[in-house]
Amino acid sequence: MPKEADRQAKRGYGGFMTSVPPHVALIVAAGSGQRSGLDRPKQFQPFAGRSVLAHSVTAFLAHPAISAVWIVTGADQMADCRVALGALAADCQLVAGGASRRESVAHGLAAIAAAGGCQHVHIHDAARPGLSAPVIDRLIAALADHGGAIPVMPVADSLSTGMDGVLGAAVSRDALWRVQTPQSFRFADICHAHRAWDVAQEATDDARMLQAIGGTIALVEGDARLDKLTYNADFDRMEALLTADWISRTGMGFDVHKFEQGDTVHLCGVSIPHSHRLAGHSDADVALHALTDALLGAIADGDIGQHFPPSDPQWKGAASHRFVEFARDRIAARGGMIDHVDVTIICEVPKVGPHREAMHAALAAMLRLDLDSISVKATTTEQLGFTGRREGIAAQAVATVRTRRR
Ligand code: MG
Question: Residue 46 C-alpha to ligand 1 middle, in angstroms?
């Protein structure tokens, strides 16, 4: 991800605004996703280590020509959208959408215009997470000679009509293409096309609207990874395609904290009443500290003490889920995903069993993982050693992470 200074340079800020930005992205993320059969709109669904939406946002932000990313989402989806974006939300502008995709795009274009406009806009569906820089490059190159450009893929299967389950006539696929997004336009042209559109009809996409006012749209080579996520099964297939060249890495973590006078122990983010508490600079959640080190270890990114020095007063009494979330975000920032974590708590007291389910749920929320990707175990040391003498608690953790090959 580019640094803030790079982003400012891309936006053309040198302490003052210069010309209209050449390329701006507009992502439509307003669907309710009823066809997918998922528990939330598909653009906010976890997918390959982040939300579906975050993939396209990252691709646009990382492209040197794109200076701003606007997102249109449902008026009632703003909060969900920000959660799905995480730290990326700070680099995006959110706009409330309309009743149809066309209306949502129109709201986005109006918001961009109100902010000063741009030379070209790249309108993209959030449900196509496999956006790559070469596709953006091809679209930008085509805009030099055309009012619009869209990525297309050839039709590989033979095509036919059919009626009542019986084969009809063959259809030539010679001049047929599958249309993808982003669809890229000169900003003034697509704004004009939206204003001129007969709102009694719904357009299949923005390219049709430009075509309706006489614009020519160039076809550029699309990408199999740009296919749309529509049904539940698409997620597994597309995730396999996007992560085919990723490698699996394992990290381990270990931590110990001793008991001192107190009444509560924090383990895996759960507060457990006890005759003592664990001594430490933060909330001394020994299990979360081991887990943080396992996550950082998997991406070879130092350890918890390096990122959160005990000498720094801002971490005094800190809730340790922040350390885990920090490590989670470092993995996401590298384009990685957490596959699985396994935490073992080693102590005689307190008893972990009654709290295991709450710990499991707390880790799932912190890591944004399914419960079956998380394991919490407990053991004693048969009354041997410092844990056996009830002097403290030890924890160890293992994390398996997948990242792009670098
Ligand atoms: Mg510790």
Answer: 30
